Amino acid sequence: MNKQLIIKYTLLLSFSGLTMQSWAQQRGEVQDQEFIIRKDRVLTLPTQPRNFERIPVLPTPKSNLNFNYKVEPFFLSLPPLEIKPEAAQKSFPRNLEELYPGFAKLGFGNYTSPLVELRYNNWEDGDYNFGVKVKHEGFYTGPVGGANSAENHTSVGLNGTLFRDYFELYGKVNYDRDAYNFYGYDPDNELLADFITPENIFNTFKVKAGISNLEKMSELNYDANIGVRLFNDSFAAVENEFLINGKADFWFSEYMKTEVNGNLSLTRPADELYRDINRNYFKIQPNVVYRKGGLHLSAGANIIFENDITANKKSDFHVYPAINASYMIQDGFGVYAGYEGDVLRKTYYDFVMENPFLGPSEQLLNTTQNILAKAGVKGVINGEFSYEAGVAVGQFANMHFFTSDPVDTLKFNLVYDSDTRLINYNAKVNWEYQDWYKLTGAVNYYQYTLTDLQAAFHRPEWEFTLGNTFKPTEKLLIHANANLMGGIVAFNPGIEGTTVLPAILDLHIKADYKITDRFSIFAVGNNLLNQRNQRFLNYPVRGIQGIGGLTVKF
Q: Which UniProt keywords are present, listed alphabetically (predicted)?
């Protein structure tokens, strides 16, 4: 048995050795390996908190419900979805007034005064817009002799704008007809019982076309236009004018820019006493403007060429400085000052619009502003009340005035003073309280020193204006204004001397009440104190005059 056991153990060891060798060859052998044992390395483990309570085992929820989902097929005959890409457009809200492109105003009052006004503006098309207006207002009876002091005014206009990517083209056509009667006579004179006053009708036709850039905040801005004005009256006055106006500015930085303004006026006036006159006027104004913080400074020049013929005139070419500055010392208080010379363009149309009872003129002259120096203070209180007060001192040549014609006292003559010194004291205020009240006021006092005339005929010595706007409710708007003027000296041919006209006081009230978004009513009252105001000698204005009516938007 021992031999058999030895043989069995020998075979077993031999088989095990072969098996280990085969397994080692299949898994690979480790050869030439080194193992390093470091005694100084310490492994540290965090302290494990001890659980003192065992988490209870929650019962397993059971449900007796069975959820069965039944799918029902639905068949709809829908067309395939069509996607049309479009550029995003932002919707800008607009006021209710913009929903109605047109409005009509109809009214009537005493002194046989109809009022008709129609306006229509089309802005729906993106590339252009246009507007049309028609207005007629008449006073077919007046303060002296009924129809002898009538007047009426008619205006028709058309304007439009064509927009392009970077600029716009604009134009305007306008016709005005203004009719006045020379009613400056004595109606109590028995010899004038059947007198019919002569009527003078002004016809004015204007055309204007221009180009301007759209982006006004760009570095370079420009605006240029040309125009024609044709004017005539019922007698012999005719004046045609060709105009070219342009302006451009370029911003060097956020604080500094340069600008240039140019004006060209070519007129051919004619009247009973002159014919074939060419009055040319050209003016260019280069200027540099600096604005930073509370400082505003502009410095430039007025360069003028004009060909009026006057006594002691040295040249048709003029160069004057133009400097203006203002500085806000504090948030609500500042000072300003300026010094400027200029030649102020004056045409027959300007004179007759100032005094519609002007007769034939002998000569038309521009006003030369040799010196105009001004200084003052301005500021704001509590962000609501703003004010300004100052004084201006000037020296002028060929300043115009009006005197009654000694032969035909119904009309006025145009006269000039060769050397006029003027001091003007002025102040103005503006106060706006919340959204329902606004106050504006201005006062001026003038002191004239003349060379050729006895007085500053038909120019006021002082002026005062006061405006009030009330909006007690969203539907009611009230305007209450007062205009005062005094110290007017007139030449009276009857006494061959001067007369001081009574002070002018005109109180004006207007109210608008909105019934609906489309309909509103209005009422206007003029000269509510019933004053016989005379802006020009022997021409009293209408007494209490009122008009009421309806406004319709469409």
A: Cell outer membrane, Membrane, Signal
Query: Taking Cα atoms as reference points, which of 235, 225, 138 lies closest to residue 178?
Result: 138
* 236 within 8 A of 269, measured Cβ to Cβ: no
Residue 22 pLDDT class (50, 70, 90 cuts) = very low
Q: Kindly state the DSSP code that residue 358 receives in the 8-state scheme.
A: B
φ, ψ for residue 465, nearest 5 deg: -125, 140
Q: Is 293 left (phi over 0), alpha (psi -120 to 50) or beta?
A: left
Widest CA span in the chain: 184
CB 156 within 8 A of CB 173: no
Of 462 and 72, more confident: 462
DSSP string for 113-154? EEEEEEEEEE--SSSEEEEEEEEEEEE-SBTTTBGGG-EEEE
For 230, residues 6+ apart whose C-beta sits below 8 A from its C-beta are 203, 204, 205, 206, 240
Q: Are 224 and 245 in contact (CB under 8 A)?
A: yes
Question: Which DSSP string corresponds to 173-201?
Answer: EEEEEEEEE---S-TT-GGGTT----EEE
**Residues 252/267, Cβ–Cβ less than 8 Å:** no
Question: Percent helix, strand, coil in the chain (nearest 5)?
Answer: 10, 55, 40
Residue with tokens 């008009």: 547
As a three-state string, the secondary structure of 229-274 is EEEECCCCCEEEEEEEEEEEEEECCCCEEEEEEEEEEEEEEEECCE
Query: For strand 167-181 and strand 333-344, is the pairing parallel, antiparallel, or unpaired?
Result: unpaired
> Which of 11-15, 27-31, 163-167, 494-498 is predicted with the least confidence, judged by mean pLDDT?
11-15
Residues 451, 420: Cα–Cα separation, whole Å: 7
Can you tell me the distance from the alpha carbon of 394 to that of 423, in angstroms, rounded to the nearest whole number? 7
Question: Closest Cα to residue 281, out of 368, 401, 398?
Answer: 368
8 A C-beta contact, residue 397 and residue 370? yes
Length of the chain equals: 554
Joined together, the tokens standing for residue 166 give 């970077």
State pLDDT tens for residues 124-138: 767 899 999 999 999
Residue carrying the six token digits 């400085």: 321
The CA distance from 156 to 203, in Å, is: 12
Distances (CA, A) of 510 to 106, 108, 142, 419, 478: 15, 14, 21, 43, 6
Distance of CA 483 to the CA centre of its chain: 24
Per residue, the 3-state secondary structure of 82-95, as one string, reads CCCCCCCCCCCCCC
Segment among 32-46, 270-284, 332-346 with least mean pLDDT: 32-46
Q: Residue 63: what pLDDT?
A: 40
Q: What percent of the chain has pLDDT over 90?
A: 73
